[in-house]
Amino acid sequence: MAVGLDKLPPLKPVTGVELGCAASATRYQGRDDLLVMRLSEGAVTSAVFTRNAFRAAPVDVAIRHLGQGAPRALLVNAGNANAGTGPQGIDDALGCCAGLAELLDVPTSAVLPFSTGVIGEPLPVAGLVAAMPSAVAALDEANWPAAAQAIMTTDTVPKGASATAELAGGRVTVTGICKGAGMIRPDMATMLAFVATDAVIGQAQLDELLRTAVEQSFNRITVDGDTSTNDACVLSATGASGVRLASDADVRVFAEALDRVFLQLAQAIVRDGEGATKFVTVRVEQGRDRDECLAVAYTVAHSPLVKTALFASDPNWGRILAAVGRAGIEGLDVEGVSLWLDDVCIAEQGARASTYTEAAGQAVMDRDEILIRIVLGRGEWVETVWTSDLSHDYVRINAEYRT
Amino acid sequence: MAVGLDKLPPLKPVTGVELGCAASATRYQGRDDLLVMRLSEGAVTSAVFTRNAFRAAPVDVAIRHLGQGAPRALLVNAGNANAGTGPQGIDDALGCCAGLAELLDVPTSAVLPFSTGVIGEPLPVAGLVAAMPSAVAALDEANWPAAAQAIMTTDTVPKGASATAELAGGRVTVTGICKGAGMIRPDMATMLAFVATDAVIGQAQLDELLRTAVEQSFNRITVDGDTSTNDACVLSATGASGVRLASDADVRVFAEALDRVFLQLAQAIVRDGEGATKFVTVRVEQGRDRDECLAVAYTVAHSPLVKTALFASDPNWGRILAAVGRAGIEGLDVEGVSLWLDDVCIAEQGARASTYTEAAGQAVMDRDEILIRIVLGRGEWVETVWTSDLSHDYVRINAEYRT
Question: Is the ipTM of this complex over 0.90?
């Protein structure tokens, strides 16, 4: 079960974005698995994609189409990743784009395709195209919750977030949905996030806002260190509110709302991480720079020994200390390092803290949400990443999925 | 159970090395947990230690003592790592060295201490010192098998290897033992290896031989990517055979025997990896250089998704492909990459091989020992690493150890 995720929060419509879902029955039965997001004329879209060298066909096509003009629709299918499918995969992704383009009366290149699901099987183009008319018929600005459901694969809960920002010219809305239950399972794959706003934002500024928001959210979460062939994160600004980011203050207020939505979405993926029983924040303080803080944070967050100790609610500070020690930090003086679990100091000067008691450590580890704070004592930089534990269920889910 | 490890192979005595074990009853009951290795006068010793910044006290003391003259004895205790113990840990390690030095009539600095076991608890010096006389009384060149038993912690089998080399001046022997069941559990910690030969070898050459042997063995294995606070690997040359490495040919023959012993020891650790049900060789071919081959090999070997698929005997090539893709290889052309499971080609040109069948992949995955071969198609470099799978037992062992 997802850690601390209750039902989907209210998702405010974004004027200029209509969503429609349908059931293609190509893999799942009795549920929607196809999503069409139609963007109004004049909408500006920015996107970031997986850095995995083995990119899925839809990623290649989406990147190509983004270079050919403003997208008018996003097309998402769940159940088949169209990855590892070679030239046929490209043709299939284009076939789906063409099918939707015809229904919406836009150029094929105005459709961006996204796929998530099993790798290496041919995309069931005919079945997806056949389901498109019902998805288009369902298009409605109120359909964000249904959309969050339709893009799920192994997710146990739908994920979405919404915020508003009061700018000088008026109120604007930011709403998004995402899916992804491992970070990331390359077979039932992929982190996908779709966020939209009705603010008026130009391409260059939107690119920058997306890059910054992703850097502090989706680029700071890890479940198992694996990155999918299909990962994508898309931000569209319809401009339908007519409200511009007219000043630096407006940009700050808007970015704050945008970052909050991105962070909620990213954290929701960790909370629903495969087999997760804990939501863990790893904060590294007093580092010299970004790189060393992240190196320490990810070494701790990826350590199977730390993650199994978290699963066991075992305040096994030796494992955290050893992970910090092997993070490859040049000239790390262990005498300057201290470790905290929430507000309990567990180690200082490279050894167990004199004030530490097993009972105090245990009290923290028994919680569902835990902060591991590592103070390096060599600078002023701070970085935070979020992760989950490594449970029996993680192994079960990943070992038994195809069998 | 260890994969493909039967009982300990015959371990040939090395003239000039006597081993004695005893039961200190400080942690374990009814088994030896203390090992003394006495080295003859004139023996030359070389050692490499963990690069973890949080080094255990015995590692600091061993490094210091190595700089103060040729060691005459190695002292190993199993059950307590004397790590995370601050200044008291240094005093305790020195106390043990002094206790043995007195019994052997050598300087304290001629004793190198090694500890493996729980982190953060004070070393039970009195109990260890009290057991030393029986260990010394037991000193005998035939005791390698007993020594392999005495240094075990969570290991399920004792580990040792032996080889001889025919040099121009006569036959020399190389024998070694090791322990370590995770790579590495920082609580019940540590990879330790002790190897000796009766060949006549000077310090500089011995250092070089050790460095090379370790690089191709202990530095090429991984169970879970975690490195202990206590890791150490020691090579002693007693010179008792009187046989020198008199020519380049002698060096080659000797190095070959030495490397074989190191590789057997290192692979034994993987075969006995925590929860291991598979012994997996990851070979990366046709890379541009060492670094990129190792980056790919370790990304695959550390991927929890690949490791759980191995546990499930699931020929899930998409996970291997995705791991290769995220290894960070600059300008990797996926069209040039092919993947093999043993002799079965599973992917070529970035997609599933046309000749591949699930049945063929399944036949390989059903084996206990599997070769994953990744051909990058961009150079001539080859690197190999060895690893195990990620099983329910790995989580159980590491989650439940302290509870």
Answer: no
